[in-house]
Amino acid sequence: MAAAAQRHQKLAEDQDEAEDMQHGPFPIEHLQTSGIAAIDVKKLKDAGLCTVESVVYSPRKDLLQIKGITSKLVPLGFTSASQLHAQRLEIIQITSGARELDKILEGGIETGSITEIYGEFRSGKTQLCHTLCVTCQLPLDQGGGEGKALYIDAEGTFRPQRLLQIAERFGLNGADVLENVAYARAYNTDHQSRLLLEAASMMVCSYDSRQCYSSLQNRFFWKRRIVSEANASGKFGVAVVITNQVVAQVDGSAVFAGPQIKPIGGNIMAHASTTRLALRKGRGEERICKVISSPCLAEAEARFQISSEGVTDVKD
């Protein structure tokens, strides 16, 4: 009898420990433990909501449009600062490929948040994204995430051969690197929205056990051109990277200082992004990155270089 009680206590402790270890995202099936019927969970999943977080982040009016769904869904709630701190400790920084750039980013591109990169033509946006597609596959001790990449391309600038060149630099098998990058060409915003729903399903279906699913949170790099649904960073804990174009904004001061370069999207883009990075051309293949806004990074600049090996340190 005592042995049975000890086994029961041990199982309960293991379950509590497993729940403590997983800070999210949680599969949509987890809602059944909160009293949501299995048939309702299936309706949510069929509507493209594959995690608990995706339900929490969805507007109430959108949820009620799903046939048969009522308002009995997971409410938002508070968490302690210590719990949030524990979650932040699990964040991974994906190396950019350049040490000076990684330094101002405090390690690299952060998982669980949205990083917007904007700049003029040939400022290095696409080359940085190509490099991240490879570095996210590196081991953790080499600045990677031991994972995969998902690349949604709205401009037709993705080139697989660039990944092969960058993979050779890091000693990775080129065929494996290409296999670990899911690619889609988006032709308009509606098409892109459909691709994002498909991407959410891919992220869940690729990890069908609790243990594998919990590891998903740090294992995807996601490149996009718009942010209408860029809260995937919160839904899945992925590193979302958005590239953005710029326009010249002329005002009264332009007569003396010239036109100001501003990213497209105004306040909508500014508030949607966690970290904003501005790229500009330097001398030759040299590029400059400046941290424009971030809740945890200081405003700073770093130099990097574009070469056949992707983003690298500047060779003086």
How many beta strands in the DSSP annotation?
13
Structural class: alpha/beta
* Beta-strand percentage range: 15-25%
Query: Could you give the distance between the termini?
Result: 74 Å
The outline comes out as globular
Verbal overview:
By secondary structure, the chain is α/β, with parallel strands linked by helices. It has 2 domains: 2-79, Orthogonal Bundle (DNA polymerase, domain 1), CATH 1.10.150.20; 91-312, P-loop containing nucleotide triphosphate hydrolases (Rossmann fold, 3-Layer(aba) Sandwich). 38% of the residues lie in helices and 21% in strands. It contains 14 helices and 13 strands. It has helices at 2-21, 38-46, 52-57, 60-64, 81-89, 99-104, 125-135, 160-169, 174-179, 189-205, 210-214, 232-236, 254-257, 266-272; strands at residues 93-94, 109-110, 114-119, 148-153, 181-185, 220-224, 239-244, 246-249, 260-263, 275-281, 286-293, 301-307, 310-312. The strands form 3 sheets. A 9-stranded mixed beta sheet has the order 5-4-6-7-3-10-11-12-13, sandwiched between helices. The protein has a two-stranded antiparallel ribbon with strand order 1-2. Helix 7 packs across helix 8. The radius of gyration is 21 Å and the shape is globular. The model is unreliable at 17-22 and 207-230 (pLDDT under 50).
